[in-house]
Design goal:
CATH class of the largest domain in chain B: Alpha Beta
Number of helices of chain A: 11
Helix content of chain A: over 70%
Bound molecules: adenosine-5'-triphosphate, magnesium ion
Distance between the termini of chain A: 34 Å
Largest sheet of chain B: 6 strands, mixed
Order of helices and strands of chain A: HHHHHHHHHHH
Low-confidence stretches of chain B: none
CATH architecture of the largest domain in chain B: 3-Layer(aba) Sandwich
Radius of gyration of chain A: 18 Å
Distance between the termini of chain B: 29 Å
Number of strands of chain B: 14
Number of helices of chain B: 11
Number of domains of chain B: 2
Mean pLDDT of chain B: 91
Shape of chain B: elongated
Structural class of chain B: alpha/beta
Largest interface: A-B, 25 and 28 residues
Strand content of chain A: under 5%
Number of domains of chain A: 1
Helix content of chain B: 25-40%
Oligomer: heterodimer
Shape of chain A: globular
Order of helices and strands of chain B: EEEHEEHEHHHEHEHEEHEHEEHEH
Number of strands of chain A: 0
């Protein structure tokens, strides 16, 4: 009975995800932050430096997943609060957690779809992916992790101005890129700072799948990503549940 | 279980403002219940609490026996809402909006599609079903929002001023739909500030103002109670004493308002005839003459005065 209800709520969460994908991924800023931004940063880092192909690929993949999975998530809830559709959603028989799982799912699917672009480019350019299955699992996990993170970023403060949330999320995103060793391998005690970023573990995992060497063990990379995912997901749902009444004011 | 909605001691404050002030009432199964009050009375706040959008500060509410605070999903499953603010997804088509709502209520796919087709045809939106709602007029949006509420067969249907701002024909279509669903057994909770609308539709009406319910009664009884609040307003070319006019038959009270005199009566027609006779006998001329229906505010004040006593 309880399981059945849970599954039913999950189904409704997917309906919400479908709606999100239809609405939000047609928008300009989404394309910018999902595709153009990673490419831009990629060029900024790589032009004029002789980096091995493998390292370039790792950087491009890491950034693309990071940006695309988080591109619209932070704006969904403020936007819906503002347009009055959030009130409509809350009056339907869908649990609050299911609404947010739906939003996370939409971000996740988008991140996953976009990540096929750098992977395809890499394959074309002849990047040798030794552990393809591990890479795929890593991409899936990372996309879900960053999608949860994106929804978490809009939980507090409960503003209904999408641009405010976008600003906050950019303030968080860019430092993370720099401490995670996306383009420049990190040594020494930079590693300690790097260890607080989920992106670090994904980059490490990609290094393992391509170059065969990694700083952490594969198991630890997966464990860390899973831990971050659970943390973000639970925090996102809990904090949103708390701040939702203020949005519906 | 006789009542569809049971509200006990419900209260909600917004900072200093008391939006809903410890109200209690009951809506019977199968009736159309009107929630009548002026702007800012607390209608929307009450509906938002009953439909599980906001939490009250105190009090309880049950819908078909489900406590809206303790079993919100069960309560929400059997109700539908036409909220005050138009809020379909403007970046989705009419069809996608209806499918989304159907999915959120767990309506099976085939049934979803059939119901949507049927509703869109009925409301004249079928040809526009694949257009984005962004391009819809206010009336079309409001009809779509009603369609969204009817995607399930709700046991209780909440409508927050569903006809405000619509033309006569659209308003009638919406009223007819409400009546028809009610005949098929749906309990209806309707908020409005339009007395005529409440009279035409409702079995019983609650009059609410300043967050308080003054009375709950049938339209007929309310009309009787408030009929003495009708008035005729007249002005003459020469000054006339208000006292003089209070002698006219059927006038219950007179009041001087600027250069006009207001005569309260439950028979405005007779009073106008008497006024004509009066002007002729005194060789006066009428400069202006108006009949005034009681305002909600009048009715409310009268009722709160009376009901405050007991
Ligand atoms: N979110 C809010 N924040 C602050 N005050 C609010 C809020 N919502 C309602 N109020 C106040 O509560 C009171 C009741 O408002 P409500 O919207 O329930 O009235 P209403 O009867 O629906 O009026 P209308 O006919 O204008 O729709 C008003 O004084 C309003 O200013
Ligand atoms: Mg209102």
């Amino acid at each position: 009975m309880v399981e059945q209800q849970f599954l039913e709520q999950l189904k409704r969460a997917f309906a919400i995800a479908k709606k999100d994908l239809r609405i939000y991924y047609k928008r300009g800023p989404v394309v910018i932050f999902g595709l153009i931004m990673p490419l831009f940063l990629f060029l900024a880092f790589s032009i004029g430096r002789s980096m091995p192909m493998e390292q370039l690929f790792t950087g491009l993949l890491g950034m693309t997943i990071f940006f695309s999975s988080m591109s619209i998530g932070p704006a969904i809830v403020p936007f819906e609060a503002r347009s009055g559709t959030l009130e409509r959603l809350v009056s339907t028989p869908v649990s609050i957690w299911a609404i947010f799982i739906g939003d996370v799912t939409a971000s996740f699917i988008y991140g996953l779809l976009i990540s096929t672009v750098p992977v395809t480019i890499g394959l074309f350019l002849g990047v040798n992916i030794t552990h393809f299955l591990i890479l795929c699992s890593g991409i899936i996990l990372a996309a879900f992790c960053f999608a949860s993170f994106g929804i978490l970023l809009s939980a507090y403060p409960p503003t209904d101005v999408p641009s405010t949330v976008m600003m906050i999320s950019n303030l968080v995103k860019f430092p993370l890129i720099f401490i995670s060793g996306v383009f420049i391998p990190i040594h020494g005690w930079g590693r300690i700072i790097a260890s607080i970023s989920p992106l670090t573990y994904f980059i490490d995992l990609v290094n393992y799948c391509i170059q065969g060497t990694s700083y952490y063990s594969v198991i630890l990379d997966f464990a860390a990503l899973t831990g971050f995912t659970l943390l973000f997901l639970i925090a996102a749902v809990k904090i949103h549940e708390k701040t939702l009444p203020e949005r519906l004011h | 279980m006789e009542s569809a909605i049971e509200v006990k001691d419900l209260a909600k404050n917004y900072g200093e403002i008391t939006a809903v002030d410890h109200i209690s009432f009951e809506v019977r199964k199968g009736e159309i219940f009107g929630f009548l009050g002026p702007n800012g009375a607390g209608k929307t706040t009450t509906i938002r609490i009953l439909t599980g959008v906001i939490r009250p500060d105190s009090g309880t509410a049950t819908i078909m026996g489900y406590n809206v605070l303790k079993e919100p999903l069960k309560a929400k499953q059997i109700i539908s809402v036409v909220p005050e603010m138009a809020n379909a997804y403007i970046d989705l088509t009419a069809w996608q909006n209806l499918m989304l709502i159907g999915e959120l209520y767990g309506v099976p796919k085939k049934e979803r599609q059939e119901t949507a087709r049927h509703l869109l045809k009925e409301f004249g939106l079928y040809e526009r079903r694949n257009h984005l709602v962004r391009g819809f007029s206010k009336g079309m949006k409001q009809k779509l929002i009603l369609c969204m509420a009817l995607m399930t067969e709700p046991q209780v249907l909440f409508l927050d001023e569903p006809t405000s701002g619509l033309d006569v024909e659209s308003a009638r279509l919406i009223r007819d739909t409400i009546r028809r669903y009610n005949e098929d057994g749906t309990t209806v909770f309707l908020s409005t500030h339009n007395m005529q609308e409440a009279n035409k539709l409702c079995d019983r009406i609650a009059i609410i103002n300043y967050g308080k319910i003054a009375t709950v009664d049938s339209p007929e009884n309310l009309r009787m109670e408030s009929s003495s609040l009708k008035s005729v307003e007249v002005s003459f070319n020469k000054p006339v004493l208000a006292n003089e006019l209070s002698k006219i038959l059927n006038v219950t009270e007179t009041k001087k308002i600027g250069d006009k005199i207001r005569l309260y009566t439950n028979k405005p027609h007779n009073v106008i005839n008497s006024l004509m006779d009066y002007t002729r006998s005194k060789s006066l001329m009428i400069v202006s003459l108006n009949t005034l229906a009681p305002t909600l505010e009048d009715v409310f004040i009268k009722l709160t005065k009376e009901h405050g006593k007991d």
